[in-house]
Amino acid sequence: MAPRRILIFFSDTGGGHRAAANALTEAFHFQFPTRYEINKVDGFKECAPFPLSQIPATYFPLTTYTPQLWGGLFHSSNSRLTLPPSAAMDDALLRRGCARVIRQRKPDLVVSVHPLINRAPCNALKEWNPYIPFATVVTDLFDVHGMWFSAAADLMTVPTQGAFDCGVRWGFPPERMRVVGQPIALQFAPQFNASSTASFAAQTPNQNANQAAAPNEPPRALRARLGLQPETFTLLLVGGGEGMGPLRAIARALDAAQLPIQLVIIAGRNEPLRAQLEHDAWRGPVNVQGFVNNMPDWLRASDIVITKAGPGTIMEALAAGKPLILNGNLPGQEEGNVTFVEQSGVGVLRTTPEAIVKQIRDWLVPDNRAIAQMQANARRVARPDAALEIVKLLDALIH
């Protein structure tokens, strides 16, 4: 029997939406190796008219250099008064392009992992065939934007109870929502052991599965394999796939503090930053990486993760049982993620290099139990198998 077709709408506005789409694709192939054919579509690039089709290209400079403008757009469109016209405009601009893609791909299920490419494909799908199910996979953690709940989805998965409560406040039917976690790479799932890694790698040689270690490899062994000092307290600095945030300033401050640590800096796709970091002179041990395919290894090898408040990296760090220092957040979009981290007791927000150095120094005081408590909290709130749980729910929509 021919595989059923699943169409996933995402966009490269930050790395988190693509990462969620990739995690779902990975989970479908792992859970149902021959049952589904997965197609992923960047809704802005392929469905929006110009100049909206350029939104992915402008996202990085807009959020980097004018974050307050981004926050203003978020908040101004997220009230009871402004959300309905905002959602209607979004629908009007994207529905025709979404309808064209849906007619071309003829899916058996449509999934959205992006709040702005959500209502339009849902409405386009229902016009084309009202019997084909539509699902929304929310990828923000707490006080999420109302656009996530503007589509009449048959199923809505949310990562936390806070996101569920937000959906209820926006009027989405609670019986169609499920709290299952954030879809992240399968290497974090306990089911994904060494033998399944090898088997899955043979089926999907281009996936990350063949890059990462088994989940139970000890941190000291991981550090040695990654070229790090096995016994040294390890800080992982990461700015997401695009290498966003003041990573260099934080790294320089930590290195100058001469703490008993080693630094790993993941610069992502930010090649100028990676080159600059590699040419810097460092006092202590510093390991610089660009974009990596084995992020689970680097997370498990670390003791503390320092990152901006992107939901994907937060949930991956928690799945690895690691406490967090959030060095900043996008106004509006990522404010709820900070609330989730602080209320869950898994990390803190420290927005200057000096404050980060002070926090690390405080945590390294002998007999300080803060790190151990945050590690326990991280393991408690983590949902490492969320992608597998979500694809089971999506499979049930079709069968």
What does this protein look like?
The chain is of the alpha/beta class and 399 residues long. The protein folds into two domains: 196 residues, Rossmann fold; 165 residues, 3-Layer(aba) Sandwich (Rossmann fold). Helices cover 45% and strands 14% of the residues. The chain is built from 17 helices and twelve strands. The protein has a six-stranded parallel beta sheet, with helices on both faces. Helix 9 crosses helix 12. It is globular and about 60 Å long. The protein starts with a strand and ends with a helix. 49% of the residues are buried. About 2% of the residues have low confidence.
Sheet with most strands: strand arrangement: 2-1-3-4-5-6
Number of alpha- plus pi-helical segments: 17
**Which structural class best describes the helix and strand composition?**
alpha/beta
First CA to last CA: what distance?
A: 14 Å
How do the SSEs run, as a string of H and E?
Answer: EHEHHHHEHEEHEHHEHEHEHEHEHEHHH
**C-alpha Rg (nearest Å):** 21 Å
Q: Mean of the pLDDT scores? A: 91
How many strands, what sense, and barrel or not for the largest sheet?
6 strands, parallel
Low-confidence residue ranges: 205-211
Integer tally of domains: 2
Give the tally of β-strands.
Answer: 12
Seen as an oligomer or otherwise, the chain set is: single chain
Determine the CATH topology of the largest domain.
Rossmann fold
CATH superfamily of the largest domain: Glycogen Phosphorylase B
Percent of residues in helices comes to 40-55%
Strand % is: 5-15%
CATH class wording of the largest domain: Alpha Beta
**General form:** globular
